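call fold(seq) -> tokens
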Amino acid sequence: MNQSFWIAGGDARQLALAKLLVLDGCPVKTLALGSEPAAFGAVPVDRFCPQSRDEVLILPLPVCSAPGMLHAPLWSTPVPLAPILDAALPGQLIFGGKVGEEIQAPAAARGLTVRDYLGREELAIANAVPTAEGAVQLAMEKLPITIHRATVLILGFGRVGMATAQRFAALGARVTVAARRYEALSLAESMGLECVPLSGLTRLSSYQLVVNTIPAPVLDRTVLNRLRPDCLILDLASNPGGVDYAAAQALGLEAVHALALPGKVAPVTAGSAIQNTIYHMLAELEREVPIGT
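ret:
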């Protein structure tokens, strides 16, 4: 790969991504990514000036930390997204993670298209692994018991739910999976896991750990009130999560909304997954229309 990249904002994942691209022989310049990348082309935010449409701009995951503001937790001052989009060239390839309409609309108004790498299946699968390992790490840190023989309820059996259930089971936990879809329950059962329809949950007081992966309000006050007082709740679902946190606090339950675990527990692995996904997207686009034409 001999592609030139700009990387704007982001956390440890994007920092690792920048290093990996340099190791792969790609020219890289960075904006608002902390002081460490200075050795490979850190540029002041107001000096972003791509010279060619062939230079690919990579925005972070998520693109925005607040409306109109670039997600740049490693940078010391807020970074508006608009000047970066203003400086981009029409036809320049722009990639970002979790790209919503609030980003697509101003990009489209400037004649730009932002392609969402988070929407790619290969990245979702790759991210499930560090997310699941991060959940295990949090559980080991916060529970006063071993994972071995712990009673664990996993809500949802998509990519993250499956990876999480497998890892807790491998450590000797007694894992039960609750899901809506019958095919998900059949898959969980085929893996040797206990399973129950989400609508038929009983014996909630028997679980020492509940891990939610469903991005919907599944753990409301009624459900939370049926958990044992020392139950730990780990919510892996994206914002706003699936837990009534006010109710959990009122009931004295510890509920942790564990967001962005890949970037926290395995940033190099997460950065590599983003790199591979962008390479795949570039290869697909190259087959359609050569970059820069």
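The first helix runs from residue 12 to 23.
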